[in-house]
Amino acid sequence: MDIIKNEFLTNGYTKIDQLFDSTEVESLLVIYTSLLNDKKRTAHLRSDLAGLQNTDKTIERITQVMRPSLVEPKILNHIAYKKALDCAKKLLGDDMELDFDMLINKAPYTNTPTPWHQDAAYWINLPDKRAVSCWIALDNVYENNGCMWFLPVKDQQILEHTNLPNEGALYCDADTTNAMPVPLSIGGCTFHDGFTLHYSRGNTTNSQRRALIFNFRPKEMIKLERNQGIDHTGVRKQRS
Ligand SMILES: O=C(O)CCC(=O)C(=O)O
Q: 217 to each of 145, 152, 224, how far by Cα in Å?
């Protein structure tokens, strides 16, 4: 874990090849798939990061469901939540807690990139800026189906971001020459800091690219957010 922590603190991202094994993924996928297929129960938390929902509501390219554990609390019992939290504590301190979870699926042949952005642009400005996102692969991921790409963090500056149409994902302009792809096997994960620039290519393959994502930050900062009405279920816009 020391090497991983060092890499995270130096570059703003790191990876773990196997957070949990392929038998443990099965039970997670049962819940994940039922949420992904249930447009009714997830409607208030569901959107298309591609920003195309007003032009064609039938095809979701980059399905995002925020806070899936609000709809299906039993997902919280999966070992992924505990293991990722343990890692977050090792990376950023014992006061880390789960702020929100989300699922993001790239449907087959949708070929729609998630644009370059910093997660911190979505968030309010908090006095304690420690935050880490854990992105867990539920399929084998590689460049052609949309594995994550990262640029090492330079500083805690947030670039100007703009929404894709129809309140789609935030994006920014950045020199991405030195960006690195991080392919993963099922059950592997990446960790990235809130200021780390990241993106993923579109899915050009014939199968889904499913990811479960957690965001951890200090308990006190989650309290501050909630006091300001921020619970990560609302509209996407630049807040910082
Ligand atoms: O899954 C993706 O394509 C993007 C995920 C992402 O931006 C994030 O986890 O912060």
A: 29, 20, 11
DSSP label at 113?
Answer: P
Q: Provide the residue ranges of all domains of the chain, joining segments of one domain with +.
A: 2-227
- Could you give the dihedral angle defined by the CA atoms of residues 145, 146, 152 and 158, in that order, rounded to the nearest 10 degrees? 170
| Residue 211 CB less than 6 A away from ligand 1 | yes
Measured from the Cα of 209, ligand 1's closest atom is: 1
Ligand 1 touching residue 114 (CB < 6 A): yes
How do residues 4-50 score in pLDDT, each as one tens digit?
A: 999 999 999 999 999 998 889 999 999 999 999 999 999 999 999 99
Question: What confidence tens digit (pLDDT) does each residue in 95-106 have?
Answer: 999 999 999 999
The pick from 104, 150, 217 for probing ligand 1's pocket by mutation, whose C-beta has the most ligand atoms within 8 angstroms, reads 104
- Tell me, using a 6 A CB cutoff, whether residue 134 lines ligand 1: no
Q: Any idea which residue has 């899936």 for tokens?
A: 68
What architecture does CATH give domain 2-227? Sandwich (2.60)
Calculate how far, in angstroms, residue 149's C-alpha sits from the geometric centre of ligand 1.
9
Neighbours of 162 (CB within 10 A): 14
